[in-house]
Amino acid sequence: MESRRRIIRQHIKSALQKTLLPLCYKLSMKKDIDKRLVILADLNCKTTPDSMELIKCELEKRGYNVKEMYCDLSDCGMVSGLKYMLWFMKAYANARAVFICNYFMPVTACKKRKGTAVVQLWHSCGALKKFGYDSEEDISSHFKGSVTRNFDLITVSSQQCVRPFMSAFRLGEGIVRPLGVSRTDVFFDQNYNEQCRREFFERYPDCKGKKIVLYAPTFRGNALDCYCVGEEYAAELEKKLGDGWKVIIKMHPRLHSKLTNCDMETNRLMPVADVLVTDYSSLVFEYALYKKPWVIFAPDIESYSSGRSFYLDYKTDMPAPVVTEGEKLAQAVLDCEKSFDSQGAERFTEKYMSACDGRSTERIIDSVLGKERF
C-alpha cells in the first residue's frame, strides 16, 4: 500500500505539471533556440551523475555550452524544489537538447519546441526488474501525467532491451534505440581499470593479496519507502569466508545504511572485485562485461517475482547461482569461481549488453546532434 506522503507528492507533481511549469516555459521562449545550449538535468543528485560524465566531456569537446542542472529532491524542501524546476523550465525553453537519466517530470510538463531534443539516457543497463508503468512501485496510479512526453530518444544496452523499455514507458516504435549506455565506455579502457585497482589498494592496503567480494544490493519498495532484505548475512560474510577474503559492502545510497564500508563509487569497484554478490540490481549487466563470476542472493525472490516481477527469467537467463538461504551464501561464494558458467555469461552479455562496446557516447550524441562542432 502506498504511503500517504507519496500520494500527496504525486498530486502536487500533477498540479505543477499542468499549471506553473508550462506557464514558466512559455514566458521564457525566445525567438530562436540557442543551438549551442545543451542541458544535463537530474532530480536525484547534486553533482554530475555517472550516466552523464562522458556525455558532458564529449559535448564540451565539440564546443557545446553545457548547462548542468541538478537537484536532489529527497534532500531539499518543497520551496527549493520548486525554484529549481522554474530555473530548469527557463533554460529548457531555449535549449538545443536536454539529457536526463532518471524520471524527470519537468521535461514533460508541456509540449516542447520542435528544435529541442530530449534524450533519456536512463541510469541502468539491461532490463531486469519491471519498472516505469509496468510497476506501481515506480509510477503511482495517483500520478496524472506522462513520464515520457517529449522524449526523442531512449538509449538502451541491446536490441533485447528495446521491447521492455517500450512497455515500461508505453512508447511506440523508433524512440527506444540500442545505441549503448554511455557510462559503460570506461569499462573498455584498460587505463581506467588499472587506475581503479591502484586507487582501491592504495586506500585499502589491508585488501592486498585477498579475494575481493563486492556486495551491492538494490532496494525494495520505492524511493520514499525503501528497504533491503538479507543484509544481516552480508555483514557476517567475511568472517565465514575466512582470512583469504575481504567483503566490500556498498548498500544502495537511498538506504542510508551503516553497513557500507567503502566510499569509492560502485562503478570503480567492479574492476577490483573477484566476485559480485547482488540481488535484483542491474549492476549484473555492467559486471558481466568483466567476465567474472557473480552470485545472486535473493531470500525474497518468490514474493518479489509474484509482486514486482522481472523481464527475464532468473532460472534460465542468469548465468549465476541464485541463493535464497543466508546460511548458504558463503559456500556459494567459495564455489562460484570453479562453477562459473563462462559460456553462459558470454551469451548473457551478448543478449543484454551487445550495444556497449566502448563507443556508446559518440554514437548517442551523433544520433541526436550529428557530428556538428563549434
Verbal overview:
- This protein is of the alpha/beta class and 374 residues long.
- The chain has two domains: 4-184 and 358-369, 3-Layer(aba) Sandwich (Rossmann fold); 190-353, CDP-glycerol glycerophosphotransferase, C-terminal domain (Rossmann fold), CATH 3.40.50.
- It is 37% helix and 15% strand.
- It has helices at 4-18, 20-28, 50-61, 78-92, 162-169, 190-203, 231-241, 266-269, 283-288, 301-306, 314-317, 329-339, 342-353, 360-369; strands at 34-42, 65-70, 95-100, 117-120, 153-155, 176-177, 211-215, 220-222, 225-227, 245-249, 275-278, 294-297, 322-323.
- The strands form three sheets. A six-stranded parallel beta sheet has the order 2-1-3-4-5-6, with helices on both faces.
- Strand 11, helix 9 and strand 12 (294-297) form a beta-alpha-beta unit.
- Helix 2 runs parallel beside helix 4 and helix 7 (231-241) packs across helix 12.
- The longest helix is centred in the first third of the chain and has 15 residues, at 4-18.
- The protein is globular and about 65 Å long.
- The termini are far apart.
CATH topology of the largest domain: Rossmann fold
Strand order of the largest sheet: 2-1-3-4-5-6
Our count of domains comes out at 2
Strands, total number: 13
Instruction: Identify the CATH homologous superfamily of the largest domain.
Output: CDP-glycerol glycerophosphotransferase, N-terminal domain
CATH class of the largest domain: Alpha Beta
Architecture of the largest domain in CATH?
3-Layer(aba) Sandwich
Q: Total number of helical segments?
A: 14
Fraction of helical residues: 25-40%
Low-confidence stretches: none
Secondary-structure element order, as H and E? HHEHEHEEEHEHEEEHEHEHEHHEHHH
Distance between the termini: 52 Å
User: Pairing-aware structural class of the strands and helices?
Assistant: alpha/beta
* Largest sheet properties: 6 strands, parallel
Overall radius of gyration: 21 Å
Shape: globular
Strand content: 5-15%
Mean pLDDT level: 89
